[in-house]
Amino acid sequence: MSSRASAWAPAGVWALVIFLMSTDSMSADHTRSLLMPILRFVVPSLSQEAIELVHFAIRKLAHVGEYLVFAVRLDRGFRRDSPVSASWAPIAALAIAALYSLTDEAHQAFVASRGASLYDCGFDSLGAATGALISLRRAATSRG
């Protein structure tokens, strides 16, 4: 595998994972049907309202986590194969991840069981910013 491919493959694979998570199979109805029995088994006293709140929180944390990983992988690509200086790599990673988030939400607008949400872009961007900060911190400690 070329050095360019090895630099960018992790980000490309993760972009595909994000795309697949935006399909019908990961819609709220599907994740609810998976999560509800587990929550009822683990905490049988949870009310339906509490289950819905936990489901909502897990879905939003998934947005943050997906884009945290994506930004870290993009940063890796920029640091290994890009004219972008290392100090700008986290910013470039954040910008690309935030733009990808917009395209991901646009994709969801065309999936019958999904919907586009700028709020979700906010969660995505929060995750990407966190990933960029982690990358920045890691780079600073490796130089240190």
Description of the structure:
With 144 residues, the protein is an all-alpha fold. It has one domain. It has five helices and no strands. The model has no long low-confidence stretch (mean pLDDT 93).
Query: How widely separated are the two ends?
Result: 31 Å
Largest sheet: none
Total helical segments? 5
Q: Assign a percent range to the helix content.
A: over 70%
Query: What does the overall shape look like?
Result: elongated
Task: Tell me the strand percentage band.
Answer: under 5%
Radius of gyration: 17 Å
Instruction: Count every beta strand, where a strand is a DSSP E run of 2 or more residues.
Output: 0
**H/E order of the elements?**
HHHHH
User: How would you classify the quaternary structure?
Assistant: single chain
Structural class: mainly alpha
Structural domain tally: 1
Overall mean pLDDT: 93
Taking pLDDT < 50 over at least 5 consecutive residues as the criterion, the unreliable ranges are: none
Question: Which descriptors apply to this entry?
Answer:
single chain, 144 residues, mainly alpha
Summarize the model shown.
The protein is about 80% helix and about 0% strand. The chain is mainly α and about 140 residues long. The longest helix has about 35 residues, at about 50-80.
Task: Give the secondary structure arrangement, pairings included.
Layout lengths: L2 H19 L6 H15 L5 H33 L8 H20 L9 H26 L1
Helix pairs in contact: 1-3, 2-3, 3-4, 3-5, 4-5
